[in-house]
TrEMBL record:
Keywords from the UniProt entry: Hydrolase, Kinase, Phosphoprotein, Repeat, Transferase
Species the sequence originates in: Xylophilus rhododendri
InterPro entries listed in its UniProt record: Circadian_clock_KaiC-rel (IPR051347), KaiC (IPR030665), KaiC-like_dom (IPR014774), KaiC_dom (IPR010624), P-loop_NTPase (IPR027417)
First-level EC class: transferase
Listed name of the protein: non-specific serine/threonine protein kinase
Biological classification of the source: Bacteria, Pseudomonadati, Pseudomonadota, Betaproteobacteria, Burkholderiales
The protein's Enzyme Commission number: 2.7.11.1
Organism superkingdom: Bacteria
Domain KaiC: 18-250, 254-470
PROSITE patterns, per the entry: KAIC
Gene Ontology MF annotations: ATP binding; hydrolase activity; protein serine/threonine kinase activity
SUPFAM superfamilies hit by this protein: P-loop containing nucleoside triphosphate hydrolases
Length: 470
């Protein structure tokens, strides 16, 4: 997923600034290459937010057998044995590096007995004896509990910063800081970078976000970036931004057949390449069938396609494919990529990152996403979702990827979320009308940008071979 786009990197990357990789390609993308070397960095967030894991993954990524050592100092938070015991559960842990190139030690008792000023002597001795490339102090915030005054902390930090800079050592201060402490705690004044990790409760699950608050001497990708904690550390999903080059709609004149009998004629030959189409309709109107039909038509024409489902599980999708004469294995071999995510586990950042990565890796030219309403229910920030979908649609347009999004409506109402309408180049409205005991499905083209489309309502039928429009 390291191909995930950031900003216009060529114009902002500081090539003369030496970087320290984090061990996570996506986080390096956000930082435009990693942390500046020989810098002082703060990793902040509430307990359990992932700060220590981020620091330890970075340590093992930069530890070389014949290189300068990496030091991890614990203070008054947790004993070394406990820290190492939990560290051993991660896949990035390397037993051969522990005790040699990576060294853990506790300095809490020495600080408690001698005061915060002892940290200067501890750092000086470590630098002179071991010449470490990286020093991590966890928790640095806990040192405040031993301080007698702010001036004492400020003086200690001034001396520590001087030592670290003089001996070209990169430091990471890990702590349970809150946003209101940034302006009052002196370590933030000497920090070259600040990374905030947060965890928000959303229903029965948590959403985790990472934000760069400061990165001295460098540009970075701003905003909230989703992440998960896995057995290999943090999996980060950089925020998707709009492409630097806007889509040239006037160049995308190729027509894309929908695969729906009778629909292309109403669209004056089909949809335009790279455009986004929203298929609206109430339950049972045929939205999912139309979206699947669109994706399958792609692989029948030799176009790699993708179908993203939040409603139909893999078994149900296999039944859908069987109705079109395909089994899952056969469809995959022909170029159909299927992604199913349970609506219970929806996380916008991970879904968008996975979709974008698959589109780039597999050369996808058609994609169907069923359904946008599930994404809206899963998000805590509708503006964030709108921005993501807009950026995604813009990337699809630049790449020439034709997209179909389904959206459930109530009755004949269109978008209940009006901002979504602006994302659509085309809108198809599917309805079910009742006359006595008889029900009739219909289709109407509400909007088709740049197409001389039909405006009438047409009968829609679902047959054994899919949807047909009369």
């Amino acid at each position: 997923m390291s191909s995930f786009p950031a900003a216009d990197e060529a114009s902002v990357e500081q090539k003369s600034l030496t970087r320290l990789p984090t061990g996570n390609a996506e986080l390096d993308t956000i930082l435009f290459g990693g942390f500046p070397a020989h810098s002082i960095n703060i990793l902040m967030g509430e307990p359990g937010s992932g700060k220590t894991i981020l620091a330890e993954r970075l340590m093992f990524a930069n530890a070389e057998d014949e290189g300068r050592p990496v030091l991890f100092f614990t203070t008054l938070s947790e004993p070394v044995d406990k820290v190492v015991r939990y560290l051993q559960q991660f896949r990035f842990y390397d037993e051969s590096k522990l005790g040699t190139v990576i060294q853990y030690s506790s300095i809490g008792q020495q600080l408690a007995e001698q005061g915060v000023g002892a940290l200067v002597d501890i750092i000086k001795e470590a630098i002179i004896d071991l010449q470490p490339q990286i020093i991590v102090i966890d928790s640095f915030k806990a040192i405040h509990d031993l301080s007698t005054s702010v001036p004492e902390m400020r003086k200690m930090l001034y001396e520590v910063a001087g030592l670290l800079t003089a001996y070209e050592t990169t430091a990471f201060f890990v702590g349970e800081y809150s946003a209101d402490q940034i302006s009052t705690y002196p370590e933030f004044a000497v920090a070259d970078s600040m990374i905030e990790l947060a965890r928000n409760k959303h229903g029965t699950r948590d959403e985790r976000f990472l934000r760069v608050l400061k990165l001295r001497g460098s540009a970075y990708l701003e905003g909230l970036h989703g992440f998960r904690i896995t057995d290999d550390g943090l999996v980060v999903y950089p925020r998707l931004v709009s492409p630097a080059t806007p889509p040239a709609y006037d160049l995308l004149t190729e027509r894309v057949p929908t695969g729906v009998n009778g629909l292309d004629a109403l669209l004056d030959g089909g949809l335009r390449r790279g455009r986004s189409t929203f298929v609206l309709g109430q339950t049972g109107a045929g939205k999912t069938t139309l979206a699947m039909q669109f994706a399958i038509e792609g692989i029948r024409r030799g176009e790699p396609s993708m179908y993203v489902s939040f409603e139909e599980n893999p078994t149900q999708l296999e039944v859908q494919l069987a109705a079109f004469g395909l089994d899952a294995g056969q469809a995959h071999e022909q170029g159909l990529n299927i992604l199913y995510v349970s609506p219970v586990e929806l996380q916008i950042d991970s879904i968008v990152a996975t979709v974008y990565s698959t589109v780039k890796k597999s050369g996808v030219k058609r994609i169907a996403i069923d359904a946008v309403g599930d994404l809206m229910m899963a998000t805590t920030d509708t503006q964030r979702l709108h921005s993501y979908l807009y950026a995604l649609a813009q990337h699809f347009a630049v790449e020439g990827v034709s997209s179909v999004f389904t959206y459930e409506t109530v009755g004949k109402d269109l978008f209940t979320e009006t901002r979504m309408s602006a994302l659509a180049d085309n809108i198809l409205l599917l309805s079910i009308q009742f006359e006595g005991r008889r029900a009739q499905r219909t289709l109407r083209i509400v909007k088709a940008r740049g197409i001389a489309h039909d405006l009438d309502e047409h009968e829609l039928t679902i047959t054994a071979s899919g949807i047909e429009v009369g």
